[in-house]
Amino acid sequence: MLGLPAQITVALFDLDGVLTTTATLHMTAWRDAFNQFLTRYDDQRPFTEQDYLDHVDGRPRIDGVRAFLASRGLVVDEETVEQIAAAKNAGFVAAIERDGVTPYPGSVRYLKAARAAGLRIAVVTSSKNGAAVLDAAGLTGFVEHRVDGNTIVTEGLRGKPAPDSYLRGAELMGVPVEQAAVFEDAISGVQAGAAGRFGYVVGIDRVGGRQAEDMTAAGADVVVTDLDVLLSAQ
User: Fold this and answer.
1) How many domains, in total, are found in the chain?
2) What pTM did the predictor assign?
């Protein structure tokens, strides 16, 4: 009834853009932080949504800064990297404090159906604000374990697209990867699920355009526009 293979007993959900609408807040905070930095250069175009999708989405904060700067051929010192990351986080935190956090209704329906069916649930996110976002969205009660940006730093894990954070999630849930499904809205996250050889990788396309095609190429087993589509697919 959940649109998953029979062997799947654990769901590993990314957070921003999968369960909550906060991916848009992240994108706006990145845009503001990078565009402020780019004013130092006369030959640099502004940061775009495609820049976010290609270089930042799903990655740990510092990795996202480095990936975007590398895409523009910009070399800066580590202090500047950390300043951009700090400015982005300050903007994101201010946005959730101002606007709150909204879960996707389709995701809430899916979480309720998953819990009723006995599917165990964990969240795997690169964000260091994972706990605050889950609490603000009223979703903490669904989650058995959480791997977030703080876990990645503390345990020395590689960020997405490496599979480390998802592998850690499966380990905490006590299941082999074949019994766990990854749910992702970022190409880097889909790549992580595929690299970890998880039992099923679900891409959630909230962008349109070529995103579904790119997710399939990155290793998604199925791509849907919202999680509750999986319920109606049965």
Assistant:
1) 2
2) 0.84
